[in-house]
Each structure stands twice: as structure tokens, then as C-alpha cells.
Amino acid sequence: MKKKEALSDELSALRRRAEERLQKKKGLSISSDDMHRIIHELSVHQIELEMQQEELQQSRDEMEKGLERYTELYDCAPVGYLTLARDSTILELNLKATKMLGVDRSLLKSDRLARFIDPEEIMAFNALMERVFSHQEPGFCEVLLFQKDEPSAPSCTVRIDAVVHDDGQSCWTVISDVTRQKQIERENAQLQATLVQSQKMESISRLAGGVAHEFNNMLQAMLCNIDGLLEREELDSSVHLSLADVQNSIMKSAGIVRQLLGFARKQFINPKVIDLNAAVEDRIKALEPLLGEKIKLIFTPEDHLWPVKIDSTQIDQVLINLALNAKEAFNESGTLVVTTGNVVVDEAFFHSHPETVPGDYVLLKVSDDGCGMDKDTLASIFEPFFSTKPITEGTGLGLAMVYGIVRQNLGTILAYSTKGKGTTFEIYLPRSAAEATPLSSEATEKAHGGSLGGGNAETIMVVDDERPVRELIKVFLTSSGYTLLQAESAREALSLSEAYPGTLELLITDIVMPGMNGRELAVQMSEKRPGLKTLFISGYELDSFGFQGNSRSLDMPFLAKPFSLVNLGRKVRELLGVASRT
């Protein structure tokens, strides 16, 4: 406004001077119209000048507002902006950069950014500055930034982007906090590794189950043949001993197959709701002589432990295998600690271990202070046949079996180890909502009665797609006095049952067969022949087929391959004996 008033005063003074000069001019006559015209032109000029002044002022106001907005955006930006000299001296910075460095802005303008970078990563920052100033190229680096004046303040990982100014003496720098991004990347990498490992173990599990099934069928044929030969009285004693050795080797091979099935989560189990403390305490007593006097065994149970549903014999297998694994890690002496506890798995734990569903779990932890393992060994310990021992010692199936047992019971097993500092296994088993059953009250197995002698009039149908197994069972049971029918498939068995006019007391069937499986066959035959008993046989274990809870449930007597002919005869007499009493 002052400038506007000054301009108006200047124009008025100019008009007066013009009038005075005109009056002083002698002999010059100016008409009144000319005078008014001159005055009008001066007024118009004055108005134009005033309008230009207003436009200039408006532009200046807009520039000031734009500068204020720029300053606000600069200071409140989500990233740090700095102007640095060649030696990383801070020439200018915004409020975000001030907060990241934790020092007052007025003090930072004479400080060097390099002072706030982790000494172990300063070389990356120096290389960035060299590239920007010497090669005139933009670049970036990622370093750990911390607050020098606040040692307790958390450090952060930052990305520094820099580009040189036109003067070549300073550079424009952007600092972005990527701590959370790096954490997410690490979590994703861990999740990816866990997923790959889980898929790998699942593939090995399927392979192990398939191999075990086929191998059991072959062992079954060998074992039945050996049993038949051992019954011959004309055999020389040396031949008899040789056959007995072969029989023992077959049974040991069957034990290895059972371990494979344990890893593949296809072994037969009878889960019950139990008190894990009681099950562990009962097994601890048997572990002490196994470990020896120089290894100290400590059990620290948690009070009021939640119940879990698991086969108590599997707890024995888990503890024995983990104890033997720890024993190998000790140099003569050491300490093995077994603890239990209640654990609530939250979302954070789930993100790190996606194989575990959030919820309530009972923890079984086994820790030793032995030699420990490196990362490569730790990554492979649950794989079947993996072992750090010589090839002649052990099968490498102990920890694989533990892994299979835990996964079969919907649990999770984690292993932690440091070379020279021991190993810890953590097993998470889902909490059961039911009440625990005391171990002492569990029912004992039924006694096997009946003889194997002849004179039996019962008719039995044998269904198995493996001809040697089918023939050997037929020969054995026929020699025991039974009437035998045999079929190589479920469809053939149904046709044979339809055509057979007599009574059929027992069906012996393999579960895994092409087309219709043994379970479906038993259901259909039971509908046509009420009271028919069924004995299932398989190279897999019964639990792997998921028959529990079927609305069309049958009794599921089961005999796992390979079985001896003696055990087969006892099982048959047991089933037919029960049938005769009902």
C-alpha cells in the first residue's frame, strides 16, 4: 500500500509540473481540450501502473506461499533430505533427517554424516561418495545408522541415495529407513526356506512310505517261505540255523521299514489323552542306564501341564532317539535336560514357523551341552538315512522317526544348535480339551487263544494283488484245515463272493490295491454277508489310511507286513474264536 500511495503522489506531482510548464511557456497556446486530454492519458497510465503493481504483489504473495508449502513438505517428508559436502559435512537437512540422527538441527549443520554410520559399513558409504563426486554418477548404498549421542536408541538400516549438484561441490542426499522392509525380507526368506524344507520332507516322506510298502511285501514273501521251510523236520541242523539267521535278518529289515513308516507318519498308533509329565517321568527312569553314569539327566516338569493326545509308546520312541542323539554329542560326560511347559503360539511365532497353527500347545524340550552342530548339519538332521557317524554305525533313521511321530500327531519340532555349545529340540504338541487318562488304567491287549491244528471248517477268502503273498497264506491256512478262496483284486473278490454258495467267515484283504481298496471291499462284502469278519493286512500301517471316524465303520483288526505265519494263525484263531462266541 505504501508503494501505491507513493506512485499516486508521484503522478500528481508530475501533473502539477506539466501544468506549471505550460503556463510558463509564452506565445504557446494550449487549448482546454488538449489539457484535459493530457491529464486523461496520465490518469490512464497511472491506472495501468497500479494494476501492474497489484499483479506483481500477487505474484510475490504466491511465491511466498509456495515457498512455505515447499518448506513444510521438505521438513515433514517421510524421508530424510540432506545436502552434503565432499567430506560428508551436512550443509542442509530437513526435520526427518534430524530425527533420524537424533541431534539438534543447528548442531548437525557443522557435523559429518559419516559419524553416524556403523564403522563396519563406512566403506560402503565412502564408496558412494567417491562415485558421486569423482565420477559424477548417482548411486546408493545401504548402511546401519545409529545415534551417536543416544547409544541406547535403536539403530536402523537406511538406504542412502545421492546425486551431485551442478556446482560439483555438494550432493543432494535422500535417506530412507528400510529397517522394516529388511525385516520383512528376512522373514520372507525364512518362510521360503521353511516352505522348501517342508515340501522336501513331505516328498521324502511319500517316497519313504511307498518304498516301505513295496519292501514289506517282499519281506512278507521271504518270511513266509522261511517259516514254511523251518517247519520241515528233515532239514539239517546247520541249514535250520542258517534259515533262522535269515529269518532274524528279515525281522531286522522289517524294523528299519517301521522306522521309515514312522518318518512317513504311516505307522499304527493308538492315541489317547495322557498327562505328558507322567509319560516322560515313566520313561526317564529307563533312560538313565541307557545314558550311563557320566551323563547327568535332569527332568523339570511344569505344574498343571495341559493334556495331550498321543500314543504313549511314541513318547518312548521320541525320548529314546533324542537321548541317543545327545549321547553321541557328549565327550564322555555331560548334562541332558528334559523340560515340559504350556505354550500359547501366537501370530508372530506362526509367521516364523508356518507349519504350526496358532493355539495352545504343550512343549517338550530336550537340551544337551554336547558338541553341537553346524548350520549345514542342522538343516539335514531329520532326513532319513542322514548321519554324521560312519556308514557302518546306525541307520540314520532315529531323528527322522522323531520328526514323523511329531508331524503325525499334528505337532511341530524345532532344532537349535551352536557348534561347541550343545543342541536343543523343542516339540510342540497340540493341547487336548479332554481329560487325561492315567497310564496305569490303559487296557491290556487281549490274550491270543486257539491252536493252529487242523480240523477247522471255516472258510476264509484271501485278497491280495501280490501273488506270492496270496499263495503262501493259502498254503499255510489250508494246511491248518481251513477252506481257502483267493482273489487278486477287489472286483474279483466280489464276483467270487457272489458266486460262492457257502458261508464265508473271514475276509483277509490287503488295503492298498489297484481300483477298489480293501476297506471299500470289506464294506460291500459285509452288506451282503452280515457277520463277516475282516482282517486287514498291509505294508503300510493302519493309521495312514485315515479310517477313524468313518460313518460306515467296521472293526479294524490289522496285521502289518511282514508278519510271521505263526502270528497270522493266532490272529485268525482270535477272530474266528470271537465270531464263534457271538
Q: What does this protein look like?
A:
It is a single chain. With 582 residues, the protein is an alpha/beta fold. The chain has five domains: 74 residues; 98 residues, PAS domain (Beta-Lactamase, 2-Layer Sandwich); 75 residues, Orthogonal Bundle (Helix Hairpins), CATH 1.10.287; 170 residues, Histidine kinase-like ATPase, C-terminal domain (Heat Shock Protein 90); 123 residues, Response regulator (Rossmann fold). The protein has 16 helices and 17 strands. Strands 2-1-5-4-3 form a five-stranded antiparallel sheet, with helices on both faces. A hairpin with a 3-residue loop joins strand 11 and strand 12. It is elongated and about 160 Å long. The N and C termini lie far apart (118 Å). The C terminus is likely disordered.
Give the SSE map.
Blueprint lengths: L1 H23 L7 H45 L3 E6 L4 E4 L1 H7 L3 H4 L13 H13 L4 E7 L10 E9 L5 E8 L1 H52 L6 H27 L8 E3 L1 H16 L3 E6 L7 E3 L1 H18 L4 E12 L1 H6 L6 E10 L6 H4 L19 H11 L3 E7 L3 E9 L28 E5 L3 H13 L3 E5 L2 H10 L6 E5 L7 H11 L4 E6 L19 E3 L4 H17 L1
Parallel strand pairs: 7-9, 13-14, 13-15, 15-16, 16-17
Antiparallel strand pairs: 1-2, 1-5, 3-4, 4-5, 6-8, 9-10, 10-12, 11-12
Helix pairs in contact: 1-2, 6-7, 6-13, 7-12, 8-9, 9-12, 14-15
